[in-house]
Amino acid sequence: MNIKRFFASSSREALAMVRKSLGEDAVILSNRAVNGGNEILAFKEEDMASFMSDDTPVQSSKRRAAPAMEPLQAAQARPAARQARPPVRQQAAPEAEPYRAVRTEPAPTTTARPKVTTTPAQAAAPQSNKQINDMLNEIRNMRSVIESQLVEISWGNIQHRDPVKSNTLNMLLSAGFSAALSRQIAENMPDHRTSAEANTWVQSILEKNLQAIPNEDEILNRGGVFALIGPTGVGKTTTTAKLAARFVMKHGPGKLGLITTDAYRIGGHEQLRIYGKILGVMVHAVKDEADLKIALEELKGKHTILIDTVGVSQKDRMVAEQIAMLSSTRQPIKKLLCLNATNTGETLTDVVRAYKVKQLDGCIITKLDEAATIGSALDVIIREKLRLYYVANGQRVPEDLHVANKKLLIHRAFRAGAQNTSSFQFKHNELPFLMGNTSPVATKLSMGADHV
To answer: pLDDT higher for 414 or 60?
Structure first.
């Protein structure tokens, strides 16, 4: 394999030298910065093909063929020798048969020789495959590095060519949206838009991809069994009390059932019992799956049943047990995940994936009044394709619970981002580097008629 070294003052010049010398299909082994410039090691694709086809077992088969030819050549040479010396052949005729018998005895040894010679070849084959796999992994890593550099260069050019896209990207990041989602939206934004047009377009795209209930008829009027789940301290009990109060105000206490599974904390169910006493609704405390089935059977005549679950960490194995308990009943239970708006996007993503073992029916954003930015919560809801029911922005029951309004939430996210002047904001010269090291988001957004 003919590996060549190229050196230039920059990566772009070195790549141009590789393309000129080895062609468009050259294979790059390494690309690194050295003193005074950039060094690239590369070779032609044809050399890679010849290296791949150069298999060691083929050579061993040739070596096996050589010993097999030796008896054949000896057999062809013996008749010629006997014809050259007839007297000797006639005198040695009685001994000819033993002589051939002696020559045939080493045959097993001859057939055994290939087994000895193939052992190194068989040992070398895995080593050769390992080298090829290591080389392919190195090529993939280099491809990722080059793609990252190209994206970084591309975004550097976009900042000069279309600064509105750069400002839109910065606006999304400041609002708390992830770099992956922000990149996807900014890259798909139509060119040559004014700042006002770009902001309107971005907000419309986010509204289109944020799923929310139009009104609360699904809970208050249609009824059913709803379980509020989520980590510790996210506000499940308070939100359950708010929902219960809204239902009692519309339908009365006789059609509502309350269940709590919080039997682990000392006095954990007492808070909901106090709310139930105020509303005139009995609270049933359950400890396991059998108790839950009994409680649901007793409350089967109720229009709506609300279940307040115990809060556990998303990394606790009790999450799977809790989801299994809620999924094992004959009566379907709709699971609503409570998301803390003050958490980071990484934490919220971890929570959703932990509780998404079985299908989630929706989510509720809590502690909205405590969050500096809410873009991370909206980002996770969009990427995970959750359905947003309510938002809670305080401790008052039931005043601080509202049906999710997509337009207001997105407007609030950008308003909070515009007011954010903390050190967590990115500068314009940092955006190309950030985009170059951001993987595309797995969820493809609906971009409307401009980008179908």
So the answer is: 414
DSSP alpha helices (H): ranges in 210-312?
217-220, 236-251, 270-279, 289-298
**Helix H or strand E segment including 310:** none
> Where do we find the tokens 């008629």?
449
CA angle 4, 26, 135 (to 5 degrees): 75
Nearest CA among 227, 222, 213 for reference residue 292 = 227
What string of DSSP letters covers 80-123?
A: HHHHH-HHHHHHTHHHHHHHHHHHHTTHHHHHHHHHHHHHHHHH
Report the percentage of the chain scoring pLDDT > 70: 67
In CATH, what number does 214-403 get? 3.40.50.300
DSSP-assigned beta bridge partners for residue 228: 308, 336
Say if CB 325 and CB 217 are below 8 A apart.
Answer: no
Query: Region 235-259: what's the mean pLDDT?
Result: 92
Q: For residues 381 and 388, what is the distance between their CA atoms, to the nearest angstrom?
A: 8
Helices (DSSP H) in 162-194: which residue ranges? 163-174, 179-188
The SS3 of residue 1 is: coil
Provide the CA 160 distance to its chain's centre, in angstroms.
Answer: 32
Distances (CA, A) of 171 to 45, 118, 283, 327, 450: 44, 65, 46, 41, 21
State residue 29 phi and psi, 5-degree precision: -90, -40
- Whether 66 and 20 have beta carbons less than 8 Å apart is answered as no
- Does residue 408 carry a pLDDT above 90? yes
Report CA Rg, the chain. 37
Q: How far apart are CA 346 and CA 197, in angstroms?
A: 31
Give the C-alpha separation, 86 to 412, whole Å: 113
Buried-exposed string 48-62: b where 16+ CB fall within 10 A, e elsewhere? beeeeeeebeeebee
Q: At 186, list the tokens.
A: 């900014």
Q: Which of 199, 197, 144 is nearest to 168 (CA)?
A: 199
Q: For the whole prediction, is pTM greater than 0.90?
A: no
Largest CA distance in the chain: 129
Among candidate residues 208, 210, 193, 169, the one with its CA nearest the CA of residue 449: 208
Per DSSP, which regions of 370-427 are E strands?
387-392, 401-403
Joined tokens for residue 256: 């509502």
Domain residue limits, the chain: 147-209, 214-403
Which pairing describes strands 37-43 and 27-34: parallel, antiparallel, or unpaired? antiparallel
Return d(Cα 338, Cα 192) in angstroms, integer: 40
